[in-house]
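On clarity, I found the account of how folds are encoded harder to follow than it need be. For illustration, here is how one protein appears when written out as sequence plus structure tokens.
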Amino acid sequence: MPDMLAIISKAVFEKEAAGRAPGDVHPIDRYRSASKHLEPLRAGGRLFLFTVRPPSESLWLVAVLEGLRFEDGEWRAPPNRVPITDVTALIPRIRFESGKGIQAAKGALGMSLQTPRALAAGDVALLLQSVGGAEGSTVQARRINLTAHDEQGPLPCLCRRCLPRSGERAESGGMSFLRTQVEAEGRTLFYWMPEELQPDTERVAKSVQNVLAARLRSTG
């Protein structure tokens, strides 16, 4: 269940966030879309909302929505607390979960990002670092990685230190695995799931999440 990128159109941003600029907080608490590309969010993950600003196609990170739930054709969450941040300089470094970067002809940046897509762990780290300050630190703190360091396992380690280098897919023993994650009590557990179970991702995630939550409660 990866973190996702989605675009707020120029018209919607100027209507709902009129006058706001980098450094201001837009307390948005929903994203009005029933796009099938956002379905992975049903199992968890965050929604990073961007907009493209004229006249030079600046890419602004507008909000990061957490604790999402889908209701009445839209994704709802507690109000955003992350300040608007100009992340134009990061465009060449964003690679998405697919491994493909942002490729857009001049004047078509917004159009090229119309389809929601999954962010890679490295993308997320860059974006949160760009936010900086107390709010950037708070967002990262809410996602404490509980995965233990493991140098001996057959699959790449998913601890906090190794995660940015792990990739989204791995192979071992002739099987393919997908990296996924669950959240509970403000903590995150990353794990490898056999790719053959991908159709049951949500069910598997719920099961792992329930076990994680129970263990966290039992340890206080």
In short: The CA atoms of residues 156 and 166 lie 6 Å apart. The mean pLDDT is 86. The longest strand covers residues 175-184.
